[in-house]
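Hi R.,

Here's the chain you asked about this morning:
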Amino acid sequence: MKKILFIPIIVASLVAMTVAGCAKPPPPTEAPPPVKTPPPEAGFSANPTSGAAPLTVEFTDQSTGEVTYWSWDFDEDGNRDSSNQNPSYTYETPGAYTVSLKVRGPGGSDTEIKADYITVVAPSPIGSEGAILLATRKGISIVEEGDWKSLGISAGLPRNLVEAMTIDDQERIWLAHSNELSVLSEEGWTHYKGNVFDYHTIGAVACDASGRIWVGCQDSLYVLESGEWKSYDIVDFGLGEGASVRDIAIDARRQVWVATRAGVSMFDGSKWTPYGETSGLAARYTEAIAVDQDGKVWVAHSNGVSVFDGSNWANYGRTGADLEVQALSGAKDIAVDKQGRIWVVTFSDGVSVFDGDHWETYTRENSGLIGGWGRTIACDGQGRVWVGTDWEATVFDGSQWLTYTQATSGLVANQIFSILCYRAGPSSLPLPHGSRGSASGKVLRQDAPLAGAEVNIAWDVSPGFSGPTPCKGDVYKATTDEEGRFSIADIPVGVYEYAIYIPEDNKWYAVTSYGTPVEIHIISGENTDIGEINL
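And here is the predicted structure, written out as tokens:
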């Protein structure tokens, strides 16, 4: 029957189901071993890695792996300077700095060290757009864009007194002081000590188109080429003994012209050609030398100015010159402006300019010159003329004069020895200011009050003077009362010296300390108490 046949099939299915349901389960799968976290790998970068102090550097973490901790040491002193991932740090002092970064994470730690990675140099005082450097006995005063800065011993200058300056083809500033030479660049200072120049006093420094540095001394001329110094003895000039160097100029043919106490000599690279009074030069004692745009050589000397056209000398100055210009007597320095005009500053007769046809003279009466003894002159790329005297720094833009002194500007001293134009000079100038203060004190003679004494405060006082007064420049004065007291108001801010005149003795007393004039600092809006002055 069909029914009988159906039963076994059902039973088989049940059996099969029962057997399948009672099967032994497979063995459990083993868990994989835990993964070990690798240690991080330290790494970093910085921007910038060099520059002038103060230098702020941004550090960037470039470590790989899992990092949970950062420790930075920016100056290799062993101390943690920051725990930030991407810190910044400001370096205040010039030097080479080693930087390290230690990182740590779940997998361990790692450290990266970069030796001498950050280089910090002394800040350059030179304005990026141009500047004028004024060399004084108290350091360098720098006129930048509408402002003043100063450069002295505290900034790396070995001595405050700078007597000559030049700029080379790499815009490095070369400063001569006594028998040493200092070089200021964006990397900082380089110094050439006195032994390089046999301890001879340096009178002039110049740079030629090849980048060679020429240094003139009282007995020799030195040249720095490819890192080596070479010297020429004074007798090589062909001018005889006593031909100490006063100034150096280099013409377009790279011939070196030297102004000395015994005439002028030219070096063409192989031989010297001397020029003296027998050659047509109007004076033996020369002070300065310059080359104009046409290649003519101009010389300032005690009798005036002489110019050499390659064949002959023409002379301007005292009676007997080719052209008598009495205002040129005692010429001290000479410069050529961008228009090719010749500018001359004299010892006591102001400033004169030659336009190719005639001379024009500026004095205290018709200009902004105070009237100090002339020392140096320079022309900048803005068309201005800068004049330095014993009492002032003055600039002329073609229409008006601006005069700077300690009392009216950031000038560190009134006596200017040299002027250097960096690039074209500043596009804008700081204006002289008129801040004022006062001074007071008491004059005694043998500890007793001295009445009727005249106290004179001036920019400069000469203890060993000749003439009616030891005071130079503007003078601020007062007479002592019965108690010997005095008070002087409305004195421009600055550094002054002072002297006392006693009418009954008809005698001056320059107030000094060990032979050096005592300084008075006048501060804006304040009274400077000098105290008791016991004669």
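One quick note: The mean pLDDT is 89.

Cheers,
M.
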